[in-house]
Amino acid sequence: MRIAVLFGGNSMERDVSVASARQVVAALRSRGHEVLAVETSRGVLSRSEEERVLAAGIERAPRRRPHQAEPGLPAVVATAPELASVDLVFLALHGGSGEDGTIQAVLELARIAYTGSPPLGSALAMDKDVAKRLFVAAGVPTPPWLMAPADPERIVAELGFPVIVKPNREGSTVGLSSVETAAGLESAIATARAFGGEVLIERYIPGRELTVGVLDDTALAVGEIIPEHGGIFDYAAKYQPGAAREIFPADLAPGEAARIQELALKAHRALKLASYSRADFRLDPEGRLWCLEVNTLPGLTPGSLLPQSARAAGVGFEELCELICDGAIRPQRGV
Q: Which residues are the active-site residues?
């Protein structure tokens, strides 16, 4: 196939997108596909440009400052004639208009096949408040939450402290704070709001951090993440080598692993997702599971969790990329 790997953007997760694209481009070429590397602000890259752009690493913190405008990502689809002749666009975008349904809607209007989930599912998953409402309706337990502004008295009564404060529409724990008392709320809300208008306040769930991928309506291996410093799996812990231990498969009783996999599938279906996703959970000291969120375009970097979940289930990275492509092309064939 002729595949365009679309990456970059100017969301807070741009560095992660570049790192994912580097791995995906190499994997698809190793499978014999003709691959175009398409950077959102430059269009189709020459091989020399590609080598330079894809060589960038992931910093300890996101580079884009809050409120910096994101360029018109959909314009790339409209102005890059090469995309009209591809069989598929592989979305190596994370966050922003690359993951919230915007670019998905543009690609559908252009009748270009793409990887990941459709516009509605992408938008539902990106909005954490809406996603949690759908989890509750589907019987997927999720930590109780409120949307800011909320009176401290109500937070104490309904959530208790500590709480997690985060932007409602960001990924990779960008803008997230752990707040121990009411005195820290105002600062944490201001931090989160700088990365997006709406702010979610969620009960902190102690316990084990677990994750599981979903591929073609099948749950993959469950993994456990143990940050080396502190209890929050933050941006630095996600993307800096050695910042966290990631154990696949997780050391769980067979029944526990199956329960997490079942809930991941329920969450995936509740959000009307397609092809693949990754769900994150907490297992509290009482053995209760809580779904934190579902990622519709999970990272595909060397240290990303979805490839590890797939590998532990017997699916190597090149095969994973191939199956993601097949999942996008299959509906076009009417299979």
A: 13, 172, 239, 278, 280, 293, 295, 299
